[in-house]
Design brief:
The complex is a heterodimer of chains A (about 70) and B (about 650).
Chain A: E1 12-18, H1 22-30, E2 38-44, E3 51-55, E4 58-62, H2 64-67, E5 70-72
Antiparallel strand pairs in A: 1-2, 1-5, 2-3, 3-4
Chain B: E1 3-9, H1 15-23, E2 27-31, E3 38-43, E4 50-54, H2 66-78, E5 82-88, H3 92-104, E6 109-114, H4 116-121, E7 125-126, H5 128-135, E8 138-141, H6 150-163, H7 175-188, H8 197-205, H9 209-215, H10 219-236, H11 240-259, E9 260-261, H12 271-274, H13 292-302, H14 311-320, H15 326-348, E10 361-363, H16 372-406, E11 407-410, E12 413-416, H17 424-433, H18 444-456, H19 461-471, H20 486-492, H21 495-507, H22 512-527, H23 530-535, H24 543-546, E13 592-595, H25 602-606, E14 620-621, E15 633-637
Parallel strand pairs in B: 1-4, 1-5, 5-6, 6-8
Antiparallel strand pairs in B: 2-3, 3-4, 7-9, 11-12, 13-15, 14-15
Classes of the chains: A alpha+beta (about 70), B alpha/beta (about 650).
Chain lengths: ~70, ~650
């Protein structure tokens, strides 16, 4: 299973499924990361965490630990 | 009667700019009851019978953050005449997500697409008419920054409120979801305000804990609905929350395709990328950090961040002792950062701060050039607060200092002294200076440094001003970095003592104002979750509580579900949970505790019926901090939402003597 955690800067992937539960998951979905949406990994923070994503035309910052919940194809 | 317009929108969509523009100076700022979420209200310029209510910036109407809970409670309970929804035109998809939820409330909605100037500049085009007919509401294009169209949009919202009719609901959901929602609507008809029917239906479909408790559906209906939701979930192979979110975004995609033409997405460096992302976080910046624990940790460590007031100290010693070496300032800042990181690691080891890391999912908004009025307003607010401080605290303490260093007992009488080494202040300083001997403060500088450290607690600006008073023999005006006293300071402080003094000033306790802010934020952190917790009395305790029910002798008693709470909800009826807690004091605590055999606190009694936790039956054995005498059994009463933990430490408030 490939999740967004393993992403490298410059990659574009499509979301297959969201794991996890509760507030974090809901927040991730509210921010527009839903099944089938394309995510572009813009860059990583200097120490590799968090990462900056481009989703639905805006920039989203996400911790790697939370990005693990995002399964991509 | 006054017309109320609620201003709603995502964070960073230009809501505050528009609010300032619409209301001018007629603003009142406070807090929403029980939370640190700011509440702003003002009257529309030129139309004083119209109140503009600024809601916090939110992405969604989920039950998970205080901001969102406050907003949805306001919209459902207070029922403003209309909602003016501000949408960032440069990020329209994510912004319309909130719009779809706002429209479900059944209140008149006017959508104001903000940043139209930037949209045009990017070469994009938004067809406002097409957007309006797709959404089924009025849409206006505005640029809050340039002051274009804001008042016009507000006027439209006012007339929409006067007409009182909301548009037809957009067809957001499709297929089996729509059928399930229609079924839920039918089942709960008559139980809720007919305008909010769709809102309640969607929330029930999402299994929103707060709404479930508010409605208190009977067993049979609840299981029927649950069956329906579950079959829908099975059909679409996803959970209800995801289904709703996905369908919303799918709907938005269709709307955007109709109404928005975008230039090919550019993935080169944007202007925002090129601007250095310097985070200027201070204590109050931590307000938006969701998790109590992270919030506390941020607040605790901000004291180490070299703030503007510490800058003069750095420049004084860099100039006077180190010959202007650039490394002094660099090392001071690096030390501050290292102290933050180290104390963060250390704090994590404590129980109060340990645990799962909180979600960190945040938007990195594009930078926008600020408008001149906003800059002036912000400059004025901060400048005025400094003037107030300088004119009161700093001026007064400087006068006191001047007196103390200029007068002393000579020949048994209090009189002006030539040499301040014989002054009252010197005596005072010497009496505490020995404390600082281990870090190398000895000789004549010791008492001066000790006094400066003390006055630094009043305000960090005081350190340099104190040294100025103590060393400024010539009486010259003191510049920012105190060039006038460099010679004297250099004579007293060696390079090592100077550096030691610098470091201790940077790392010692912050000023009283900052300590006050820390205290305020720490207290508030406890109460952040309160509205959702109290508004949603739960018939069953949350898992977090039941896990600490070790030793409870009987099966958990059946508890009457509490009636729906009023808003504001300070007096929401509570359900009592008998609980006997063994082992150490749990991190979770009930809202009220009182000694067995005594009357419950008046405030608890106002909350509703007190059984089964009546004063006669002690229900809670308080295990105080280790070493403290056990004050005996207590009666306990609490009310916590299913999705929220109880407000930790809340019991201390009502802990009996």
């Amino acid at each position: 299973m490939k999740t967004r955690k393993d992403a490298k800067a410059g990659e574009t992937d499509t979301v297959a499924k969201l794991h996890g539960e509760g507030p974090v998951r809901r927040r991730i979905m509210d921010m527009g990361i839903t099944k089938g949406v394309e995510i572009f990994v813009r860059k990583m923070a200097p120490l590799g965490d968090p990462m900056e994503l481009n989703v639905r035309g805006y920039e989203l910052s996400l911790r790697k630990a939370d990005a693990e919940a995002i399964e991509v194809v | 009667m006054d017309i109320k317009i609620a201003l709603a929108g995502n964070p960073n969509c230009g809501k505050t700019t528009l609010f300032n523009q619409l209301t001018g100076a007629s603003q009142s700022v406070g807090n929403w009851p029980g939370v640190t979420v700011e509440k702003k209200e003002g009257r529309l310029k030129g139309q004083t019978d119209t109140i503009i209510q600024d809601l916090p910036g939110i992405y969604s109407l989920s039950p998970y953050t205080p901001e969102e809970v406050v907003s949805r409670s306001y919209l459902v309970k207070e029922q403003p005449g209309a909602i003016l929804n501000i949408v960032d035109g440069t990020n329209i998809e994510r912004n319309l997500y909130l719009t779809t939820q706002l429209m479900e409330l059944g209140l008149p909605v006017v959508v104001a697409v903000n940043m139209m100037d930037l949209v045009r500049k990017n070469g994009d085009r938004i067809d406002l008419d097409a957007l309006g007919s797709a959404l089924g509401c009025q849409v206006a294009g505005i640029s809050a920054l340039k002051g274009e169209g804001g008042l016009e949009a507000a006027r439209r919202a006012v007339s929409a409120a006067q007409a009182g009719k909301s548009g037809e609901l957009p067809r957001v959901f499709t297929g089996s979801v729509e059928r399930a929602l229609a079924h839920i609507e039918e089942s709960i008809q008559g139980m809720v305000d007919s305008r909010h029917l769709r809102w309640y239906a969607v929330k029930l479909f999402e299994r929103d804990g707060n709404v479930l408790e508010e409605l208190g559906l009977d067993q049979e209906l609840a299981s029927r609905l649950e069956e329906r939701i579950a079959s829908c979930e099975q059909e679409l192979d996803d959970d209800a929350e995801s289904i709703v979110t996905s369908q919303r975004y799918a709907y938005i995609r269709r709307v955007v395709e109709q109404a928005v033409t975008k230039q090919a997405a550019m993935r080169s460096l944007s202007a925002s990328d090129r601007i250095d992302r310097v985070v200027t976080s201070r204590i109050l910046a931590s307000r938006t950090i969701e998790q109590d624990r992270d919030r506390k940790m941020t607040v605790m460590t901000t004291g180490f961040i070299p703030c503007g007031a510490k800058l003069p100290i750095i420049s004084l010693f860099a100039g006077a002792v180190s010959g202007g070496s650039p490394w002094v300032a660099v090392s001071a800042f690096l030390t501050g950062i290292a102290a933050v990181v180290l104390s963060g690691i250390m704090l994590k080891k404590f129980r109060a701060f340990a645990g799962e890391p909180a979600p960190f999912v945040m938007e990195l908004p594009a930078y926008h050039a600020p408008s001149v009025p906003s800059v002036l307003r912000a400059t004025w607010e901060r400048g005025w607060s400094f003037i107030k401080r300088a004119g009161t605290v700093i001026l007064l303490s400087s006068i006191v200092l001047w007196f103390l260093q200029g007068y002393g007992f000579q020949d048994g009488v209090l009189q002006a002294v030539e040499d301040n080494n014989a002054s009252l202040l010197s005596g005072l300083g010497r009496s505490i200076a020995w404390v600082f001997a281990p870090i190398g403060w000895v000789g004549d500088m010791a008492w001066k440094a000790a006094v400066a450290t003390l006055t630094g607690l009043i305000a960090k600006e005081e350190v340099v001003s104190t040294l100025g008073v103590l060393y400024n023999v010539s009486g010259e005006a003191l510049g920012d970095s105190g060039e006038a006293i460099w010679l004297f300071v250099a004579a007293d402080f060696g390079p090592m003592t100077a550096y030691s003094f610098l470091m201790s000033s940077l790392l010692c306790a912050p000023c009283f104002a900052a300590m006050g802010a820390i205290k305020r934020e720490m207290n508030n952190a406890k109460w952040t979750r309160r509205p959702s917790a109290i508004c949603a009395p739960s018939p069953t305790p949350p898992p977090s509580l039941s896990s600490s029910w070790a030793g409870w002798p009987r099966a958990r008693p059946a508890l009457a579900p509490a009636p729906s709470p009023p808003w504001p909800c300070w007096r929401a009826p509570c359900t009592c949970w008998p609980a006997r807690v063994t082992g150490r004091r749990p991190g979770t605590a009930p809202r009220w505790l009182w000694a067995a055999g005594t009357a419950p606190p008046a405030a608890a009694a106002r909350g509703g019926p007190l059984e089964p936790g009546s004063p006669e039956t002690p229900l809670w054995n308080w295990k105080g901090p280790r070493g403290q005498e056990d004050p005996g059994p207590f009666c306990a009463m609490g009310s916590y939402g299913a999705n929220t933990g109880p407000p930790g430490g809340a019991s201390r408030r009502s802990r009996p003597p």
